[in-house]
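hi! just following up on the protien thing from before. the input was this:
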Amino acid sequence: MGIVNLSSDSFSGDGVSDPDMALCRAQQLLREGADVIDIGAESARTNRGPISEEEEAERLCSFVERWKDAGETALLSLNTWRPAVARAVLSIGGDLLNDIGALPDDENARICAETGAALLIMHSIGLPKVPHTHVGYGDVCEALNEFFTERLALCDRAGLSREAIVLDPGIDFAKQRSDNLRIYAELERLQHFQRPVLLPVSRKTVIGEVLGIPEAAKRDAGTVACIVQGMLRGAHIFRVHNVIAAVQTIQVMEAVLQAEGHSH
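and the predicted 3d structure came back as:
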């Protein structure tokens, strides 16, 4: 999953504010080997104020219209947690709603059921755009299990098929360094849900903390390490900025695992 930020304040410094430039960026990521494009119009950074629903919807709809006009057929993920924005954009296009809002109610699940879109459920606590650095867990993986059990039941009641759901453990969202590392180490504990797991590995704060690298754009080597660990622990989708590095990492890992007699 290649990341395109249709905003000027992306934490990784690679955001673009013009939808035509964003389309060019998306097409470049597809040429580099991305299977899915994740387009977002609002930075998830907690030190940036939110934009209005109207502005977010307008940015995303402008991109989707250009995407469709260009005849692109790759999977398109819409990165928003606001139901009004999700409904407006999914009504004109998009395959997956990447919801970082932790699904506090069933509205986004119902929107996906109505539009035929898939839904990514990300673990977090509290509202997006608000720091939750105080949150602690006795066993973060058990907390993930309880969270996804509850949210999958909510989706069932909303009429959304489990076949249309992807799980995201929410690296760096309402988690300490030790929690993030524990998730990487024990990711296979999510496999019993029998749903694809998306691992948002790219340039995360936890990588910067381990390596002592404050600049997000310089964390690609650490990102590669997280991709390798994710492949060994059963992750299915990797959300990344540097698609070339991710694709090459996955290709080499697949060759090694195949030589060992594994099938991934």
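The first strand starts at residue 2 and ends at 5.
The radius of gyration is 17 Å.
cheers
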